[in-house]
Design goal:
Layout: E1 2-7, H1 11-26, E2 30-31, E3 40-45, H2 50-69, E4 73-78, H3 79-84, H4 87-91, E5 97-99, H5 107-115, E6 121-123, E7 146-149, E8 151-152, H6 163-167, E9 171-172, H7 175-187, E10 192-196, H8 209-217, E11 224-228, H9 237-245, E12 252-254, H10 262-268, H11 274-282, E13 292-299, H12 306-319, E14 323-328, H13 346-369, E15 375-380, E16 391-395, E17 400-404, E18 416-424, E19 429-433
Parallel strand pairs: 1-2, 1-3, 3-4, 4-5, 5-6, 7-10, 10-11, 12-13, 13-14, 17-19
Antiparallel strand pairs: 8-9, 15-16, 15-18, 16-17, 18-19
Helix pairs in contact: 8-9, 12-13
Bound molecules: S-adenosyl-L-homocysteine, iron/sulfur cluster and FE3-S4 cluster.
């Protein structure tokens, strides 16, 4: 039997797909690259915004046609599966099985039952040991960086967000389990580790998140350490100290602010003011100059006035985020913000988003231009040069690099090399080997 997994959403979902693939490979299934070749197709879904959900239903429509022509098992996993549960079968009766985000290890059982002819197979239970997934089973897709779960779920209650429902309550993996997985990753050749959680700052698996970073960085062979995502509410001085003082921590901090208006932040229940956000960024001290700072912003949240939006623009000017990810507010099922009136015309939301993104592109470009002329360590992220003749690489600050290495030159995939930055665009840097 051949299976194919399509993945939407965040790194947590990418990593879940690596776990799901591992479970099926262990049972003797074969992994294939396209839907067309597969006997079993799994859609690992996201429901963070309406658009993400649309993409899933579009794909399901395509698969329905395919299923009319040949035998095909269709499974839905991920956040949409957890949110909709058996309602998915009503909406798309050609789905064979539904697997929740907290029941990953049940996948082989579900596939087997569906293959045996059972219809509407479903497991969306909350298994308390879901986060204790055996790391040797995981089938890593990226060779440049190993994703390692440190916690699952989210105990925050941001009023716009589905994640607390789709991923359940916070649970942390014990430190020793994490360290064992990191050692295994290094033994498999990984040099860069990304620690994953919806809210890594509230990690409680036996030490603080700051201490966890220290301990992971002490594992022999770890060169760069990244993490995602960090919530400003639990961003402590201790953590900032670790970030700036530990040379293994890559100089990149993603700290989602969501809005520059205190009134909006209050209605979002984010748990901090703009002033507190700035204060916490300030914890980085002089070390901050070395760091790229990234953020998430939602525009058009219910009741966002022109003044509120101007406050967001002002914050963007003040902080000069190196990058930001911005979205139009999307009303989500079961979230408290549904009780607020979604009162801003779509055209206004779109105009705000466009203005914010244009300005961000300029700021990002300026931040890239400051790097031109520098010599940096970059990690090689392609197996060879692209058709355009350059290798793909990344800086510690997470910028994309197009690296020209010279005819016939071989570079170590996943390894570090020194490069001189000689070009800056808004989306990537150009570089040559030193
Ligand atoms: N746990 C992370 C966020 C994960 S979701 C954190 O709190 O930092 C990633 C981003 O999607 C959020 O930061 C937010 O900007 C955006 N987002 C979440 N729900 C949304 C919604 N209903 N509409 C628009 N954007 C949303
Ligand atoms: Fe969603 Fe807020 Fe939790 Fe992030 S912290 S996942 S935005 S509820
Ligand atoms: Fe999407 Fe779920 Fe991640 S909603 S962003 S896949 S946690």
């Amino acid at each position: 039997m051949k299976f194919h997994i399509e993945t939407w959403g965040c790194q947590m979902n990418d990593h879940d797909s690596e776990k799901l693939a591992g479970l099926l490979l262990k049972e003797g299934y074969e992994s294939v690259d396209t839907v067309e070749e597969a006997d079993v197709v799994i859609l690992n879904t996201c429901s963070i915004r309406e658009k993400a959900v649309h993409k899933v239903y579009t794909e399901l429509g395509y698969l329905r046609e395919m299923k009319q022509q040949r035998p095909l098992l269709i499974g839905v996993t991920g956040c949409l599966a957890q949110q909709e549960k058996d309602a998915l079968f009503k909406r798309a009766p050609h789905i064979d099985f539904v697997l929740g985000t907290m029941a990953l290890q049940q996948l082989p059982k579900l596939v087997e039952e569906a293959l045996a002819g059972h219809r509407r197979v479903i497991d969306t239970e909350d298994y308390p040991d879901n986060h204790l997934f055996p790391p040797e089973v995981t089938q890593r897709r990226s060779k440049a960086k190993a994703l390692v779960t440190i916690m699952e779920g989210c105990d925050h209650a941001c009023t716009y967000c589905v994640v607390p429902t789709t991923r359940g309550q916070e649970r942390s993996r014990p430190v020793d389990d994490i360290l064992a997985e990191v050692r295994l990753m290094v033994a498999q050749g990984f040099r860069e580790i990304e620690l994953l959680g919806q809210n890594v700052n509230s990690y409680r698996g036996g030490c603080s998140f700051a201490e966890l970073l220290e301990r992971v960085s002490e594992v022999d062979g770890v060169e760069w350490l990244r993490f995602t995502t960090s919530h400003p509410m639990n961003f402590t001085r201790e953590l900032a100290q670790t970030l700036v003082s530990n040379p293994k921590v890559a100089p990149f901090l993603h700290l989602p602010v969501q809005s520059g208006s205190n009134a909006v932040l209050r209605r979002m229940l984010r748990g901090y003011t703009v002033e507190e956000y700035l204060e916490r960024l300030g914890y980085l001290g002089e070390g901050r100059a070395r760091f790229a700072i990234s953020t998430d912003i939602i525009v058009g949240f219910p009741g966002e006035t022109d003044e509120d939006f101007e406050a967001t623009m002002q914050l963007v000017e003040q902080v000069q985020f190196d990058t930001s990810f911005s979205f139009i507010y999307s009303p989500r099922p079961g979230t408290p913000a549904l009780r607020l009136k979604d009162d801003i015309p779509h055209a206004v939301k779109l105009a705000r988003l466009t203005r914010l993104q244009r300005r961000q592109t300029e700021i990002t470009l300026a931040s890239h231009q400051r790097i031109v002329g520098q010599e940096l360590e970059v990690r090689i992220e392609s197996q060879g040069p692209t058709d355009h003749g350059y290798w793909m690489a990344r800086t510690g600050q997470w910028q994309n690099v197009h690296l020209v290495a010279g005819e016939g030159r071989q570079l170590p995939f996943g390894g570090l090399t020194r490069a001189r930055i000689n070009y800056a665009g808004p989306h990537f840097l150009g570089a040559e080997l030193v």
